């Protein structure tokens, strides 16, 4: 099953590499990834991903992503309509924003 | 770390600045202002501007003989102080030599700042001489990393790196410094105050109430203590909780020293080389209170049979650990010390359980009456740590000797047990002992190493000699890679492949060649005098102790087995 995450991250050097590397290392594969243009030094990444094996928890992954220093907040879609267009998602915060 | 008002300039806050202010000066002066006293490093091309700026600085630079040792020594200092250790190396090979040390700090959540020189910005990405992308290579093993591109931002970015390394769950932060940035003119202002919040927030009362309810209905609870207790400054809180509730407790390798060493309800280390009392208690418990531990496979054995009948309370300062490997019935995220102090289950009716745990602990206590006249390493280690007392600090290497230290030594504090736990990196012991003894010259710092491990960083005898570091080295020589040999004996049909170190050098002679006092111990009778001599030494000293190559570490949980299925001698 594919899940979708929306991640807000500061646009610092290596931030995307760090995010993608973590997701892969923690046992997930990324199907699609979209990064919006950075505004105010912050950008938004939306990725669809799936666990490589059944033992991996998306919930734990979101907290591991939330731990990254560049990451401001992590959201999961409120409606798990995985095939819907990103724009129609309503997002639920999965990791608190870092101030 | 000292926070200074953002309006002050570096020149106002520290000794007069040299005439020419470069990025490299900004690096050095920022470290001074942040309160760093010692850096471990090794020079080379790209980092030379920093070495140039070091002369005249109040920073004490310790010249190691391999960059890996710089990282290990900084790591040990950090474990002892809780403040980030600092190491320094050049680009390319200097940086790659640091990687094992960075990974070691990451796996054990040790605050560390790694400064690496880099080729000039314009050459980055062109495969220039001594260019490696250490920023990219180290990403999986750092808490964070930065490349400083603007010399004016050096103070601010270094200060932030310290705050990241030391805040929350600590870890290593790498700072890559392109040579042109180091050579550029810079008029640094002081590091601004960090925007990071200091510690973890207090746990939610509802979670504590849920945990207290689980505890009060439990008949056989066990406290499972991990490295997060020391990191969270919760040692006293754990001791108080153990005293208040009487709950039997076990510890991981990194959790040793948290419980009071003489606590009756402390059952010892659990896991692969844990004691029977600890492993059986976890196997039989109906509630496991995990406190800053992370269900690591060395501690749990087969995960699906670990504490299989038990409900789980999981407390951690790092919320990302909760539920990673085992679902928690009650999750308590936040400041562990605060959570333990507020966790009040009332009177627990567990006297029968406590008694059976205590009896098992007595029945299965380690025995030290091994036959023969040869040195019995477990007995020697026990005597050594008891003779050294509360000031005993062990810097271990990796192998059988490391497990014997964990099983048989007495630790008054968790930070006194310096061990490469998560990474298990041979070569840690000697540089870690040097870092620790420099930081705590009056303590009894002992590197405990094997004939395999010591050779991984033997060159650091030169560092110990140069700085007269009071590190005592106890080298347990079984003429083999003992832990590997033990596995081959039991799990690879005694096919002893490439573990024989019959042609080791005479280690006492090696130490002498480095100018270090050394002696060899052949028999059990010589042990008391050897311990005396080690502990009373003022400078570096090495005891080369010959032990029986057939000696093994017991008990042992075979790979893939449940902790209850321990093999014993
Ligand atoms: C850098 C590194 N290489 C290999 C290993 C695998 N390994 C673990 S223990 C061990 C043997 C250690 O031998 P020694 O230091 O003599 O200690 P002993 O087990 O004999 O006490 C080896 C090779 C390791 N942990 N670290």
Account of the protein in words:
The mean pLDDT of chain A is 86. Chain A is α+β, with helices and mostly antiparallel strands and 99 residues long. Chain A has one domain: Alpha-Beta Plaits (2-Layer Sandwich). Chain A is 21% helix and 38% strand. In chain A, strand 2 and strand 3 (42-51) form a beta hairpin. Chain A has helices at 15-25, 58-67, and strands at residues 3-10, 28-35, 42-51, 71-77, 91-95. Chain B has 569 residues and is α/β, with parallel strands linked by helices. Chain B folds into 3 domains: 10-183, Rossmann fold, CATH 3.40.50.970; 205-363, Rossmann fold (3-Layer(aba) Sandwich), CATH 3.40.50; 377-546, Rossmann fold (3-Layer(aba) Sandwich), CATH 3.40.50. Chain B is built from 22 helices and 18 strands. A 6-stranded parallel beta sheet of chain B has the order 2-1-3-4-6-5, with helices on both faces. In chain B, strands 9-8-7-10-11-12 form a 6-stranded parallel beta sheet, with helices on both faces. A 6-stranded parallel beta sheet of chain B has the order 14-13-15-16-18-17, with helices on both faces. Classes of the chains: A alpha+beta (99), B alpha/beta (569). The structure holds thiamine diphosphate.
Bound molecules: thiamine diphosphate
Order of helices and strands of chain A: EHEEHEE
CATH homology superfamily name of the largest domain in chain B: Thiamin diphosphate (ThDP)-binding fold, Pyr/PP domains
Structural class of chain B: alpha/beta
Mean pLDDT of chain B: 94
Average predicted local confidence, pLDDT of chain A: 86
Fraction of residues of chain B in helices? Answer: 25-40%
Q: Report the CATH topology name of chain A.
A: Alpha-Beta Plaits
Radius of gyration of chain A: 13 Å
The CA-CA distance between the termini of chain B, in Å, is 50 Å
Report on the biggest sheet of chain A: 5 strands, antiparallel
Biggest sheet: strand arrangement of chain B: 2-1-3-4-6-5
CATH topology name of the largest domain in chain B: Rossmann fold
Give the CATH superfamily of chain A. Answer: ACT domain
CATH architecture annotation of the largest domain in chain B = 3-Layer(aba) Sandwich
Number of domains of chain A: 1
């Amino acid at each position: 099953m594919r899940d979708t995450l929306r991640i807000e991250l500061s646009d610092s050097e290596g931030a995307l590499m760090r995010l993608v590397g973590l997701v892969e290392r923690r046992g997930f594969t990324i199907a699609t990834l979209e990064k919006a243009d950075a505004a105010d030094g912050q950008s938004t990444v939306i990725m669809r991903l799936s666990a490589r094996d059944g033992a991996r928890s998306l919930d734990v992954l979101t907290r591991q992503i939330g731990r990254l220093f560049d990451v401001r907040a992590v959201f999961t879609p409120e409606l798990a309509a995985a095939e819907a267009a990103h724009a129609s998602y309503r997002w639920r915060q999965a990791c608190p924003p870092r101030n | 770390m000292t926070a200074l008002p953002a309006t002050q300039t570096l020149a106002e806050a520290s000794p007069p600045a040299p005439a020419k202010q470069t990025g490299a000066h900004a690096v050095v002066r920022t470290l001074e202002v942040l309160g760093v006293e010692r850096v471990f490093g090794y020079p080379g091309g790209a980092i030379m501007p920093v070495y140039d700026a070091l002369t005249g600085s109040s920073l004490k630079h310790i010249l190691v003989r391999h960059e890996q040792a710089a990282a290990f020594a900084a790591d040990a200092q950090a474990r002892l102080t809780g403040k980030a250790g600092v190491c320094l190396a050049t680009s390319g090979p200097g940086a790659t030599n640091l990687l094992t040390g960075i990974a070691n700090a990451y796996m054990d959540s040790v605050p560390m700042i790694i400064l690496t020189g880099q080729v000039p910005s314009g050459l980055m990405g062109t495969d220039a001489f001594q260019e490696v992308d250490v920023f990219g290579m180290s990403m999986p093993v750092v808490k964070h990393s930065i490349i400083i591109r603007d010399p004016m931002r050096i103070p601010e970015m270094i200060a932030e790196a310290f705050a990241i390394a030391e805040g929350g769950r600590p870890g290593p932060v790498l700072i890559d410094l392109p040579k042109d940035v180091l050579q550029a003119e810079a008029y640094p202002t002081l590091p601004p105050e960090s925007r990071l919040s200091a510690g973890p927030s207090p746990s939610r009362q509802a979670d504590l109430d849920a945990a207290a309810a689980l505890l009060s209905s439990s008949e056989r609870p066990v406290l499972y203590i991990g490295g997060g207790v020391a990191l969270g400054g919760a040692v006293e809180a754990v001791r108080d909780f153990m005293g208040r509730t009487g709950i039997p407790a076990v510890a991981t390798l990194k959790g040793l020293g948290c419980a009071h060493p003489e606590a009756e309800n402390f059952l010892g280390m659990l896991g692969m080389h844990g004691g029977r009392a600890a492993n059986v208690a976890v196997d039989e418990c109906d509630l496991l209170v995990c406190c800053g531990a992370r269900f690591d496979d060395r501690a749990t054995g087969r995960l699906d049979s670990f504490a299989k009948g038990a409900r789980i309370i999981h407390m951690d300062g790092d919320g990302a650990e909760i539920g990673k490997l085992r679902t928690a019935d009650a999750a308590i995220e936040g400041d562990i010390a605060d959570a333990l102090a507020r966790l009040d289950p009332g009177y627990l009716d567990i006297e029968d359980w406590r008694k059976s745990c205590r009896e098992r602990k007595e029945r299965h206590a380690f025995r030290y009456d091994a036959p023969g006249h040869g040195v019995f390493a477990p007995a020697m280690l026990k005597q050594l740590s008891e003779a050294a007392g509360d000031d005993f600090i062990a810097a271990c290497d990796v192998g059988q000797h490391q497990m014997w230290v964990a099983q048989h030594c007495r630790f008054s504090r968790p930070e006194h047990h310096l061990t490469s736990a998560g990474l298990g990196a041979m070569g840690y012991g000697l540089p870690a002992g040097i870092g620790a003894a420099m930081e705590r010259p009056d303590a009894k710092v002992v590197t405990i190493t094997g004939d395999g491990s010591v050779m991984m960083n033997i060159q650091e005898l030169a560092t110990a000699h140069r700085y007269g570091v009071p590190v005592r080295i106890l080298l347990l020589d079984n003429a083999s890679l003992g832990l590997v040999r033990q596995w081959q004996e039991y799990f690879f049909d005694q096919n002893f492949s490439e573990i024989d170190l019959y042609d080791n050098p005479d280690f006492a002679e090696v130490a002498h060649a480095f100018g270090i006092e050394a002696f060899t111990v052949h028999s059990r009778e010589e042990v008391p005098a050897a311990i005396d001599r080690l502990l009373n030494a003022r400078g570096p000293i090495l005891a080369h102790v010959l032990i029986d190559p057939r000696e093994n570490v017991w008990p042992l949980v075979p790979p893939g087995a449940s902790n209850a299925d321990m093999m014993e001698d």
